[in-house]
Specification:
It is a single chain. By secondary structure, this protein is α/β, with parallel strands linked by helices. The chain has helices at 77-86, 104-115, 134-145, 165-178, 189-201, 208-213, 216-233, 245-256, 267-271, 274-277, 299-308, 347-356, 362-376; strands at residues 3-12, 17-25, 28-34, 44-47, 52-55, 57-62, 67-68, 71-72, 89-97, 122-128, 150-154, 181-185, 237-239, 261-265, 313-314, 394-404, 423-433, 436-439. Strand 7 (67-68) and strand 8 form a beta hairpin.
Length: 462
Amino acid sequence: MTRTLITGGLVITAAEELHADVLIEDGRVVAMATAGSQGWTADRVIDAAQKYVIPGGVDAHTHMELPFGGTFASDTFETGTRAAAWGGTTTIIDFAVQSQGQSLRAGLDAWYDKADGKCAIDYAFHVIVSDVNEHTLKEMDGLVEEGVSSFKFFMAYPGVFYSDDGQILRAMQRASGNGGLIMMHAENGIAIDVLIEQALARGETDPRHHGEVRKVLLEAEATHRAIQLARVAGSPLYVVHVSAEEAVAELAAARDKGLPVFGETCPQYLFLSTDNLAEPDFQGAKYVCSTPLRPKEHQAALWRGLRTNDLQVVSTDHCPFCFRGQKELGRGDFSKIPNGLPGVENRMDLLHQAVLDGHISRRRWIEIACATPARMFGLYPQKGTIAPGSDADIVLYDPHAEQVLSAETHHMNVDYSAYESRRITGRVDTVLSRGELVIDRREYTGRAGHGAFVHRSTCQYL
């Protein structure tokens, strides 16, 4: 058993900030005390002077190796979790995909196989349900008991992941009884497909038209509809990748009624916009994701939602496709551009920049990136905080270091950065996962296979 002492840093959790020493034994935090007050000894002492000591990030929305549009997301569980660690994230929750005609179990087992022995950090799974029937509804009960307690449905992508209102209602009814959390991609995919067909018929093929056909009102309408279906079913609802002011308003109205409705947004909606989608020479394809990037004026509503807690979580929806050979599949037809952006390495840094820019406080940074996703998906207090008994998933963060985000220096397996040349202040220095050094003073010391599958309980807000 090794003892590690982190000394001299400012410990920041969602609840408090204090100058404290943190003592770690056997992969867990065992004690915290006022800096220097205890005279603790340890096998390894880590000096955190001039640094923040924060919980490892919990990214509750990633897609490693996701099949989409005839290709696969370019990060494997090995490359993606290594990049996550470089960015201060120590737990990801990825999405296992049920294929049409297959069981939920078959999809989950396929993802267990993809991740097993590959991950540098801990991981868990949600399940994407794309074929609702009596058998799969029954399977949901067993998966909740297995620690896979959340299920994602799509109101978009007809013919791929799409579920109709009746199927969604049945699943919500099931979740209301078994404690599962329903996650929703809220866009009216049926209407969007009509608009895509009409745009292409007019010769509107550039990436910017991806954003124009996936209209704000069709996100707001689907969000409203999902909320009403959840009310009918008596089910909680978590809406993923909220991008538009009107969708935030739907969530706020539901929460004002006291409904168990939650919302997530992503860094791309906070820092990027339709200006990126409109970049010339097909460069806009780099920014094609769904829900799409919105005009800049929507950003203020998203930041406000994060401050008022109408949005509770910032995840990445990390789903990278290389520009060359993957995004290029959509040259001449924006509807064939694989949907997704890289970001698992950038989230903690971008949100620290948001602290400096005055959008959120330091504790709110930790709340939306670590503590709340852990609570939302049944991982707290094992993950998402620094407290006796918690896993020693800890990041030493240098709030003064300056960096320029670039594909030349990032560790994600993708040939571009969505934030290329952006200057930010703050950088990860050292990362521990269950007490093991994964990043040691900006040097990678982790290994594939250290990361373990984490059994989740149910949503802790219910």
